C-alpha cells in the first residue's frame, strides 16, 4: 500500500510508474483496528440519527431502527438456541422484504454464513446451489417452499403463513414472526468472530460462466459499508427506494448493510414494477433511486407521461450501476429531470460491489466512464496475453486489489487461482483503460456474460442446456443488443440432419428449465459455429453477424 512505500504517484492519474499501479485519488477508508468484529456489530454500533429503517412500499409496515436491532438480537438468540454456529451456512430464498436484512444481520452476527438465491431461479438451479453450499437451514416464503421441496432442509417461513396441507410438514421449524418475539439473551452462546471470517456466500458467474460461490469476509463487508458511507454521508432526511434485488450484491451491499449505517430510510418494493416504483417515490418523498440503465432509459422515453402522472420532485439522486452511461443517456435524462443528479458505480460480486464510482454530476459527465477508483482500491491494466502491466490510456484487462476483494470461490481452487493471483489481484474480466485524470473506461468484456436488465446470464450455462436437446448438434449463445433490456440471449443453432426444429420450439425448451431472465429470445440456424483452433466459440464473429443482419432489415 502507498503508506509503506516512498512512491512517486502522478496526482492527476493516480499512476505510479515504478509499480505500474493506479492508486485511488479518493481519501483512504479507515478499517476498525479491532480484529474480533463482525459486520452486524459494526453496523449496529454506528450512530443512527434516523428513526425509520425500513418501510414496505405496498403495506406501509415499517421497522424503526430500535425495532430492527431488537429483531436481529431476538432472531440471533433463537438461531443460537437451535444450534446454528459459526461457519454454518444458512440459505435465504426470498423476494425483497423489510425482513431480508433482519435475517442477514442475525445470521452474520453469529459468525454463520448467509447464502442468497434468486426467487426466479428454477428448482434445479436452486438445488445446485444447495448441493454446493450445503446449508443447514433455509428461510423462505410459503409460495417458494416448493422450490426447495426436495432438499430436506429445515425451513423458517418469513411470511408466517401455512397456506395448505402440503406445507404442514415437519420441515417447517418456525416462522420469523415467532423468532422475533423471543426475548434476546445476553448470555447466549457466542463464538469469537474475526474480520477475516466468512460472512456471505453469494453466487456469481464470475469471469467464466458456471455459477460459483463468492466467499466474502466480514472485513470486506465492513470496508464496503465504509465506502458507502463516504459516498452518502449520514443524513436522516434521505429516503432510498429499493427496487434492485436484495439477493444480489448490489442490493445486499446498498440496503442490507451499507445504507443502514447512514441512518437513511429504505422503502422496499418486493418486486420491480415501474409504476409501483414511481408511486413509492411520490408517496414516501424518496430522494435516492438506485437502478440499472434500462430503467433509466425508460424514464427518459416516458418522461412526459411519467411526470404528468407522478410527483417526482423529491428525487435528488439517481444511482446507476450495471453498465456505464453514454452522453446521450446522461444529457437526455438531465434534460427531462434537471433537478436530479446522476451518480454511477462499478463493482462485482467478487469485489463486494466496490470498484469505481462517479460521486458528482461533474464526474458523471466524463461520458462513458465507470468512475474514479473507490477509496483504498488499487488497479492495474494488464495485457491479457503477456501479463504485462500497462500505463495511462492503454487498454487491457482491469485488475483490482483492495479491502473489499473476495477471499476466493467456495470449494473451487482452480477458479480461485485463475481469478485471484498470489498478490491479491482480482482479474475482473473487463477490458478497460484509465485516462490521464484517473477515470476508468470499460471498452469490452473478456468475460462472456450477457447483461439482461441488470441480471447476469452466462452463455456457457445456456449452451450446456441446448446441447441436451436431441435435435441439436452444436450451439452458441451471444448477447444481442436491445434498447430496453441492454442485451438479451440469442442462440445460434446447428440442427441434426433431417431436423425441422423451430426457433419457437427451442425457446420453449429453454424457457421451461431456466429463470425468466435467462430465456433465449432470438434464434438463428446455421451450418456451423465459428471456433478458434482450440475449439473456443468465436462469439465476436457471431455478434458481428447478428448485428449486421439486423441493420440490413
Automatic annotation (TrEMBL):
Keywords of this entry: ATP-binding, Ligase, Membrane, Nucleotide-binding, Transmembrane, Transmembrane helix
SUPFAM superfamilies assigned: Acetyl-CoA synthetase-like
Entry cofactors: Mg(2+)
Keyword Cell inner membrane attached: no
GO molecular function (one): CoA-ligase activity
InterPro entries, A to Z: AMP-bd_C (IPR025110), AMP-bd_C_sf (IPR045851), AMP-binding_CS (IPR020845), AMP-dep_synth/lig_dom (IPR000873), ANL_N_sf (IPR042099)
Residue stretches spanning the membrane: 247-269
GO cellular component terms, semicolon-separated: peroxisome
AMP-binding enzyme C-terminal domain location: 461-536
Stretches assigned to the AMP-dependent synthetase/ligase domain: 46-410
Family per record: Belongs to the ATP-dependent AMP-binding enzyme family.
PANTHER family registered for this protein in UniProt: LONG-CHAIN-FATTY-ACID--COA LIGASE, PEROXISOMAL OPC-8:0-COA LIGASE 1
Name under which the protein is recorded: 4-coumarate--CoA ligase
Organism lineage: Eukaryota, Viridiplantae, Streptophyta, Embryophyta, Tracheophyta
